């Protein structure tokens, strides 16, 4: 995502070589979703580049391979899981959490498989689980059972807030595409651990996106006052303004919590001029 074309020359310097793009992104945001690891386990050179371009306080939320979560449904993918864990090991503390995103068909009846799988993961890594089956959001018993499994493994439940996306009919091509691909689920604001992760997608209109995240502002302030360290990932359907919006969200949280450290100034997209 740090190579997103609309950001180049606008938020990030352009041109930049592949081994510099993440460094530029990391000057804007201190965490990133590792979605590419869902499709392929990165090779040693790639992981070394990620480590070289980021400090140890940068966080990767790395999605487990789809062979493990979707094709094997958490059973029988030991070799693929081990290869993945070995590959990301050089990132060390930069691995904010292992992201277990489960398919929409993975429901309450599959919780024993999830519990067994979580017991196999190394305790050296935090774990964050994203579910998409409607029962976990609409049935209290199903939610309680899932929370019990996650608490037993000290794992977090990652909500994906799409309520603003689906609040009104889409008006752009990217919004129309997002309507066909993103889950339509209720907002969930309950944290299970000291490191909550939230995924939020708004609209291609920046002001509508900011209006939609208002409920999260006080949630994040509350979590911070409780001593938690939450992470918010901001998306829009086209992601054109996502970098600026992520920093805006941080600033709005900080406006009511001045002890929260400001983000550092990002790398300029263009060299300074004399005039």
From TrEMBL:
Gene3D superfamilies: Protein of unknown function UPF0759
SUPFAM superfamilies: TM1631-like
InterPro entries in UniProt: DUF72, UPF0759_sf
Pfam families linked to this entry: DUF72
Listed name of the protein: Uncharacterized protein YecE (DUF72 family)
UniProt organism field: Thermopolyspora flexuosa
């Amino acid at each position: 995502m740090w190579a997103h074309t609309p950001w180049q020359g606008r938020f990030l310097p352009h041109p930049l070589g592949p081994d510099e793009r993440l460094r530029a992104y990391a000057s804007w945001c201190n965490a990133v979703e590792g979605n590419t690891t869902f499709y392929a386990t990165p090779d040693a050179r790639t992981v070394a580049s990620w480590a070289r371009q980021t400090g140890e306080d940068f966080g990767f939320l790395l999605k487990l391979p789809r062979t493990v979560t979707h094709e094997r449904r958490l059973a029988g993918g030991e070799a693929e899981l081990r290869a993945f864990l070995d590959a990301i090991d050089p990132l060390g503390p930069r691995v904010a959490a292992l992201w277990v995103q489960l398919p929409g068909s993975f429901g309450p009846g599959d919780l024993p498989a999830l519990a067994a799988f979580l017991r196999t993961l190394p305790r050296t890594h935090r774990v964050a689980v994203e579910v998409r089956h409607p029962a976990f959001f609409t049935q209290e018993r199903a939610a309680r059972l899932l929370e019990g499994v996650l608490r037993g493994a000290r794992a977090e439940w990652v909500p994906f807030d799409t309520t603003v996306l689906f609040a009104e009919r889409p008006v752009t091509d990217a919004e129309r595409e997002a309507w066909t691909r993103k889950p339509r689920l209720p907002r969930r604001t309950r944290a299970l651990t000291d490191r909550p992760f939230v995924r939020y997608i708004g609209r291609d209109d920046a002001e509508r996106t900011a209006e939609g995240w208002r409920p999260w502002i006080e949630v994040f302030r509350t979590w911070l006052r409780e001593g938690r360290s939450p992470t918010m990932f901001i998306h829009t359907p086209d992601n054109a303004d996502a970098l600026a919006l992520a920093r805006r969200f941080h600033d709005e949280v900080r406006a009511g919590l001045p002890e929260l450290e400001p983000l550092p100034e990002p790398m300029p997209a263009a060299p300074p001029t004399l005039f």
